[in-house]
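User: Could you write out the 3D structure of this protein bound to NAP? I've included everything you need below.
Assistant: Certainly. Input first, then the structure.
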Amino acid sequence: MSEVSSTATVLDALVLGAGFAGLHALYRLRSNGMKVLALEAAPDVGGAWYWNRYPGARCDVESLVYCYTFSPLLDEGWKWTERYAKRDEIQAYLSWVADKLGLRRDIRFNSRVVSAVFDEQENLWRFRTEGGDTYRARHFFSAAGPITTPIMPDIPGLKDFEGQVIHTARWPERSPDFAGKRVGIIGTGSSAVQAIPIVAEQCERLTVFMRTPNFYSPARNRPLTAADYQWWEKNRELTRHRLQNCLRWGGGDIMLDDEINDAMFRSAREFTPQRRREIYEARYANGGGVVGWAFCDAMADPEVNEEAADFLRSKIRTIVKDPRTAEKLTPRGYAYGTKRCTVGTDFYEAFNRDNVELIDIKSERIERFTPEGVIVGGRLIKLDVLISASGFDALTGALTSIDLRGVGGKSLKESWAQGPHSHLGISVHGFPNLYMVGGPGSPSVLTNVVMTNEMQVEWIAGLIDHCESQGLRRCEATREAEEQWTRHVNELVKGTLWESANSWYVGANVPGKPRVILAYVGGYLTYRQRCEQERGQGYPGFAFS
Ligand code: NAP
């Protein structure tokens, strides 16, 4: 087994992952003079954006606010070409950032961490990668990403299927040629919604296996123009300020008319039914994923939520020509927003194509795969390729898939067996000097993830600065603070709409995963203020030694 510089050198910090959060963390800690390395499983930077190369992959947050703000250097020299950036453009952006900030020299690529063990005698973390390299570091900064551990559906016979099987988050660098192929796709979540229209155009026949219809709205993507950039120069600081001071707004619609935008801060009940309808229509025409979050009580008041849901349902019938298919695609039985709303281009339109078939697998069960295809409702559907857009072991999977052990050799996976616990979604009692960005108990996936990442990276770096300046070797959440925060995270969802859906937000997509809310639903602003309070009071929720 090769021993990399680690045996000679104890790093001040090791960053797990070189995606949005990891690159920023590496830059921030290094700027403080710390000796830091980032370990990245992929052969390049990008994190989730490196792996999600499926056709149609793009971000559904507007590109102007889906980028870093931590350095003015990064506001210069980069121009987004489209309102919603394609995966390749986001990947190019992260690559540009890594080069501009000289980060690559401190990243070890193709380095998937398989174990991380806290050494109580030395107060440091010992890491081992899949390739057998080892590292030691005093601080362990996890930027492993909330949605990075893909899961495959457990369908009988799948391993016997002789065609190609591809998960959307493990798309091959050379995308398969679908011409003349019979393709099946499992899932109708955000990834599938983006892939379906494009694969449908390329293949001979596409069969979509849907378990639960999702709420969907069109992105209305378009090129960014010189006029857009003029607007942006004038409005950049204001937009960022608004994002920083908002509970839920993620920035999927930054150029929306002010009056429509401001309604988001008011109750739906302040408007007449006709005005509400106009507001929904304006949002729908503008595009983006937050049509239904038009008023501040969309997630609190079931009637407001149902009105938004019904608005989006009504649109399906205006696009999908076959009434039976339209009905199948209509989401019911759970509240709008409690499953991640999907956004795309021509998703519903794809079902008007002759070569696309929708199978609702709740009424026509998938029985099993055979070498030739899949048997559904007694019928064999022959397939050459199966695309699994089946999602992720979200928020916890990235860390629980590592043999990660804290004080007394306690495993994080076992510790979280009944549900994750942490203080502020950042620190876990019994796992000193481990800090998480985008971890369970933080609001990240319900917000503009890049913005929340930046806030958390800066906050954690501040905590590490505090340890360094005070000569503190060990830092972890106290048991009391962790219990309090975890109780708070769970109490916020009791009796709310969040409980109505089988979503990855509550771990319902992974068999055996405890059903608890994984994200903090209290909103970005509340979370940021709570973190600032913790820092302002000298970190009362942490124990140092
Ligand atoms: P997902 O939202 O979890 O969707 C997975 C889909 O697969 C669902 O339709 C699910 O059905 C279905 N499925 C899972 N297991 C199945 C099984 N055993 N049999 C049949 N169907 C099964 O995953 P995703 O679409 O990859 O998206 C994950 C998250 O990544 C998104 O919610 C979003 O946060 C992020 N994302 C973002 C963007 C973007 O534009 N920024 C793009 C893509 C993804 P059920 O609904 O019944 O579970």
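The longest strand covers residues 134-142.
User: Perfect, thank you.
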